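Field reference: sequence -> structure
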Amino acid sequence: MTENGQEEGLAKLINGLSATRATGASTNNTFTWALLAEIYLRRNRIDEGLAAIEEALKLAVTGGELFWRAELLRLKGELLLGQSTPSTQAAEECFCEALKMAQDQHATMLELRAATSLAKLWRKLNKVDDAKRILHSIYSRFNEHVDNLDLIEAKQSWNSLVIRRT
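Structure field:
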């Protein structure tokens, strides 16, 4: 409901997080806070998204949900780029840290997401060869017949890098 743009869904998600916090429970809250941050990112509500990410990062450490930290850092980087004055260097650092963390955890899909975000940024910074290298090194490990949104986005990014160079 929330992802389809319905404000009611967003309100329910926020109320659910508040109710969970009031009970002292925290299971899977990191994922839920990440979802909230992503929704804010899609709606260009950057400050609220950054606040949600900071909450998620705290919970990841205190709740022992570090497996999701790579995605949280990637989302933080995307939010930093969405600011009225983008924090390009800080975003790049988030993407690089997310990539390293995903690699260390052998979390290939999170690695792909971080690499795709980093490649898009590097493309904007005219680091096309670096962008191609990082994206290809991860994307090439996937079966081309697998269809999911992350792979489609990575392939579109790859294609834009190849087209730009020729």
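Note: Residues 33 and 104 are 23 Å apart (CA to CA).
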